[in-house]
Amino acid sequence: MSIDFLYPEFEVVRNMDRCITCRVCERQCANEVHAYNERLDKMVSDESKCVNCQRCVSLCPTRALKIVKSDCKLRENANWQNDGIREIYKQANSGGVLLSSMGNPKELPVYWDRMLINASQVTNPSIDPLREPMETRVFLGKKNVKPERDESGNLICKVPPQLELDLPVMFSAMSYGSISYNAHASLARAATEMGTYYNTGEGGLHEDFYQYGPNTIVQVASGRFGVHEEYLAAGAAIEIKIGQGAKPGIGGHLPGSKIVGDVSRTRMIPEGSDAISPAPHHDIYSIEDLRQLVYSLKEATEYKKPVIVKVAAVHNIAAIASGIARSGADIIAIDGIRGGTGAAPTRIRDNVGIPIELALAAVDQRLRDERIRNNVSLVVGGSIRSAADIVKAIALGADACYIATGALLALGCHLCRTCQTGKCNWGIATQRPELVKRLNPDIGSRRLINLLTAWKHEIKEMMGGMGINSIEALRGNRLMLRGVGLTEKELEILGISHAGE
Amino acid sequence: MSKGVHFVTGKLWRDECLCFFYFQNGKGESKMKKEGQVRIPSGCAIAAVISTEGKKISGGLVAEAMRPMHDRSNGLGGGFAGYGIYPDYKEFYALHMFFDERATRKDCEAFLKERFEVVHAEVIPTRKIPAITDEPIIWRYFVAPLQSKVAAMQVEEEEYVVRAVTRINTEMNGAYVFSSGKNMGTFKAVGFPEDVGIFYRLEEYEGYSWTAHGRYPTNTPGWWGGAHPFTLLDFSIVHNGEISSYDANRRYIEMFGYKCNLQTDTEVITYILDYLIRVQHLTLEEAASVIAAPFWSTIDRKTDLNDKEKHIYLRTLYPSLLITGPFSIVMGFNGGLMALNDRLKLRSMVVGEKDDKVFIASEEAAIRTMEPDAENIWAPSGGEPVVVRLKEGVQI
How do residues B174-185 score in pLDDT, each as one tens digit? Predict the structure, then answer.
């Protein structure tokens, strides 16, 4: 055994009384943990390869399997914890940057859980969403036009281009390449059915999905993969991706092994070549350059489509958002530090950026202070986990939320956080055909629709409890929130009172 | 001019003496926050009457109308707005003001004189009654903006007045402008509305239109500014309800220079209507369609495509000015009234007519008090504005 050896993180516990040697686990595990030993006539495991994705556990017909965290650990040390030591061994061995997937797993404060929602009692009535209309429709886009009238005094009903959402939730950017064809198909169909939008991410739009264009946001990122005129024209809106919550300040890297077949064609790059997006857009070195790109895209689409600028939540986010609000962008999307990713350097994912709750509160207030909140709509993501998070985000001032990790969970993701290996057993973050086909888009889209439908019900219930029958009247309605266990400073930034006040 | 408005002499002593009580009561004794530092929900009673022919109606009539609705108030606020009550000064903005002490009044008068020509200033006559206590110093000023100042600021005259009023109410501790329109005035106090009517000698005023309010706050307001109506220029609002959209509305409207100092629904509704009508130049009906917007399901079903387009437009442009939660409001303005319910009609409001008069009230009993033979009594639907204007050609 080498100096680097560490006992595997997970143990595969197989109940031999239950195991019928059907070998389902073996066939299901792309990591090759399970194998059949003919001599012994039983299943054996190599737990060193296990990522705890729970695929074998879920599919074992006799419930013979469970995956548990290994209790074979180094001596306990509050400062030098197990993960930290493991990472040092890895880096001492490889000399490389550590890679991780999905959102920040560290114990950062989750402010959603420190805010509580109001309800009506006596002085005004709560409203029953089963008996009364309860509106969740939202328009995203600029609202800063002054009404004009024709000669006969009628209003000229022209507004800048808007995105119309039946509920204030959209699927956030995940590129074709980082996730599978079937995952994209599921997202596109669900968005269409639910009257909302999904986002292509930076990998272009597969030709099969142009039919979902009215419910598609097409992304333009620093690598400009798959960007061409028809692509821009296909979507309902265009998103300029400046940054991502999981990796602010750096670009993306999709390994050549994933650039195969349709992915290569959709991205318009050769098969097998690494798809590397630069850290900045090389035509945006300053805010005035952003304005030029915004207007280039508007020119290319005849001012018919709203332009979204997506940025990661970083320290100076309020000032950055203020700059974007004056750049001509119609919508600002902000992604918080807990946002997911298909692959990001671990140190960046875990240490760069700020929580979305604080970023949202600061941006919304700053735009109001500068009287330009009307110039843009605000969309926030970076770990929106439930209908309650959405209600709190809207009350803080968001127009809508982006969800991605939540959507992937609905598709079967078990959050094993190893997307970067491309061996997703659930058929989501992989391009291997035999894995991709495990995700059935009929079932996937149905599960996404179920999730959004359930959330919509919950949002309505909470709104009704507050006596609010339109989501518009919840937006920025911070009196509907109270903090618990927060400091004066945190309350000040969130712009809310403490519970009991 | 009605006889109550004559200059009242020998009242100056009240300044010093009563301000003492007010001061002690309002600020000195407890840690309880006064209105403006805390948001206080209220239930209420409202009533209004207008003569479409511009005939004179005594303020006493509408004060009496509040009596049968006594239980809708709890003695912590009552008030009235009368239109056409200052015909002799109809060209001038009538500023009604509360002061906590004489020095504040002097400071404020200096502030006013830098910005306005003050053509007349006087104590607002009141009647000492046991039911109304702790009154502040109450004055009125008839003023005209100094045109050179208006020109220098490069704003319209009305905006100039709004800014001056906002500045006093925001920055001048102890001074509060509670009425600022032309040929109209607001009278309000902490007390039951019928008592407030007696206190302000309302029967001595005559106007073509009146609105009235009785308040049921769930907290002690602490001072008189929180009573209703709430006014800005000639807009006055009386409101019954507790809106659930308050902070969404407040944070939006404050982007346009308004300051919600009182944290009351009525205040924010006044600013919203001022913004939509005076600044954005929407019609009353369009403004009503913004704040009590039809449901999307209703809009989607509309067959009149122009009407449908208009509603989609208004809801797209002003989503943050939608008001949810229960309300019934009557907005007074020079030349008319508008009554409006929230779109679910979560608060009662009825309308009745008789000859040239239209009556609006929370309860029919109030209408019957004003006019026992009122006809066509009906309850407007949620979100359906009732706009009553003076008949064409009627001069006030």
Answer: 999 999 999 999
Mutate which: A396, A469, A471, A482, vs B, most B CBs within 10 A = A469
| Mean pLDDT calculated for residue range A345-365 | 97
Q: Does A154 touch chain B (CB under 8 A)?
A: yes
Q: What is the pLDDT of residues A163-216, one digit of tens each?
A: 999 999 999 999 999 999 999 999 999 999 999 999 999 999 999 999 999 999
Task: List, as ranges, residues 40-79 from B with C-beta within 8 Å of A.
Answer: 41-43
Does residue A246 fall inside a structural domain? yes
Nearest to B241 by CA among B274, B268, B221: B268
Helix/strand/coil for B379: coil
CB contact under 8 A, A124 and B325: yes
Choose one of A96, A127, A158: the last residue of a domain: A96
Structural domain containing residue A19 = 10-96
Length of chain B: 396
Chain B residues close to A163, C-beta within 8 Å: none
Q: Which domains occur in chain B, in start order?
A: 3-280+323-389 (3.60.20.10)
Is A311 contained in some domain? yes
Q: Which residue of B has its CA nearest to A466?
A: B244
Which 3 state secondary structure label does DSSP give B178? strand
Listed by number, the residues of chain A in 374-393 with a beta carbon closer than 8 Å to a beta carbon of chain B are 374
A248, A331: one domain: yes
Across A41-195, the runs of DSSP E, i.e. the strands, are 42-45, 65-69, 99-100, 115-117, 138-140, 163-165, 169-171
Specify whether A358 is located in the same domain as A270: yes
The pLDDT score that the predictor gives to residue A401 is: 98
* Sign, Cα dihedral of A417, A421, A424, A430: positive
User: In Å, how far are A122, B84, B294 from A471, measured between CA atoms?
Assistant: 22, 41, 14
pLDDT in tens, B66-98: 988 888 887 788 899 999 999 999 999 999 999
Q: Annotated catalytic sites of B, by residue? A: 44
Residue B8 clears pLDDT 70, i.e. is over it: no
ipTM score for this prediction: 0.91
Q: How far is A287 from chain B (nearest CA, A)?
A: 24
Last residue of a domain, one of A73, A96, A119: A96
Which residues in chain B have Cβ-Cβ distances shorter than 8 Å to A120? Answer: 244, 325
Q: Which residue of B has its CA nearest to A163?
A: B316
**Mutate: best of A126, A131, A150, A157, partner B, most B CBs <10 A:** A157
Q: A63-122 pLDDT, tens per residue? A: 999 999 999 988 999 999 989 999 999 999 999 999 999 999 999 999 999 999 999 998
Pairwise CB contact (< 8 Å): B244 & A467? yes
Indicate the residue of A374, A397, A479 with minimum beta-carbon distance to B246: A479
Contact A112, A359 (CB under 8 A): no
Question: For the domain that residue A225 is a member of, what is the CATH number?
Answer: 3.20.20.70
Total domains, chain A: 2
Residues 6+ apart with CB under 8 A from B305: none
Q: In this structure, what CATH number is given to the domain that contains residue A84?
A: 3.30.70.20
Q: Residue A136: CB partners within 8 Å, gap ≥ 6?
A: A166, A167, A168, A456, A459, A460, A471
Tell me the average pLDDT across B273-281. Answer: 94
CA distance A460 to chain B (A): 14
Using CB atoms, which residue from B247, B295, B343 is nearest to A477?
A: B247
In single-letter form, the type of residue at position A489 comes to K
